[in-house]
Amino acid sequence: MSKPIIVGISGGVDSSVSAFTLKEKGYDIECIFMKNWDGDEESCTSEEDYKDALLVCDKIDVPLRTVNFAKEYWDNVFQYFLSEHSKNRTPNPDVICNREIKFNSFLNYSIKLGARKIATGHYAQINKKDGLYTLHKGRDNAKDQSYFLCSLNQRALSRSIFPVGDISKNRVRQIARDNNLLNHSKKDSTGICFIGEQSHFKKFLKKYIPEKPGLIKTTDGIVCGEHEGLMYYTIGQRRGLGIGGGYGYSELPWFVADKIIKENVLIVAQGHDHPALYHSTLTASNFNWISGTPSKKNNLTAKIRYRQNDQNCNIALLSKDKVHIKFNEPQFAITPGQFAVLYDNNECLGGGIIDNRK
Questions:
Q1: How far apart, in Å, are the Cα atoms of 284 and each of 102, 212, 254, 303?
Q2: Which of 239-253, 269-283, 289-303 is least confident?
Q3: Active-site residue among 44, 57, 150, 193?
Q4: What's the pLDDT at 243?
Q5: Quick one: fold of 5-178?
Q6: What homologous superfamily does CATH list for 276-357?
Q7: What is the rounded end-to-end Cα distance, in angstroms, of the chain?
Q8: Which DSSP state fits 90?
Q9: Fold classification of 210-273 (topology level)
Q10: Annotated catalytic residue: which of 97, 150, 313, 348?
């Protein structure tokens, strides 16, 4: 028997159509549902998602098994999440989950089962050039997920397939409808998997990290309120500050501009165009180069958040895994803890964690 392709199926439409597409092409496939969280959070949809995955696998007649990576997730993703928040930074656990769970624990598990490759429902594309595997944006620019895959390496790309990477989200849903997959209209998941919607964020974090209230000050040093703890706020945040738009000299809204950690002070600026919210350079550490070596190009583009359009920049290597990025135009809300991801046209070169900005 040929070695199967093992599909990581989540119960969502993207991974379901990935499994269906591979089956239609004649591949021998199996599906695995990963359980990565053992908490009792109300927002956890694992049980419902498993039922949806089971219905899809029954429909397309492929075997489904489950695997529990909750310990690996706790040790390698959740502890990172807590550590960054305890330092009053804003982490991106989705990037770490891809690196540590989906393309490490899940990949290793699948290979032990005899898989030749794994497949997921990510909107990205893999090519091979001059003996190296390269990661490229998904064809549907609105759904491209290469940003979240910036920490992958050559081994992960060489053993992975992204079956929906070259088609649009609308086409994915159409394939699901045409073939009677019951999750064809299922809403895309949002928020952090173990928290759910952002409205649950403070309540969740309070269970793990003690509150440390402090003052909110304007960029001019005027006290204008109190915060519940710096860990609850992110650079560029507008909602939930408790400062009315009428405070100050205009009706413009307030935004988080900075955190003075030693003084436990939250700095806010009024108006989206306030210069305190914009910076032109950043330093990113723990930088992962997908090719294994730093890019020799200087003029590239970068993203400092998932939904951002590519921004023109120049880079300087401070070391193999530390990069200085200078943007052609000042960027809104560069946030320590988030990932800066570099691109050469549509190729994702890799990414690193933002340490500071100027």
A1: 24, 28, 27, 12
A2: 239-253
A3: 193
A4: 85
A5: Rossmann fold (3.40.50)
A6: Translation factors (2.40.30.10)
A7: 58
A8: -
A9: SH3 type barrels. (2.30.30)
A10: 97
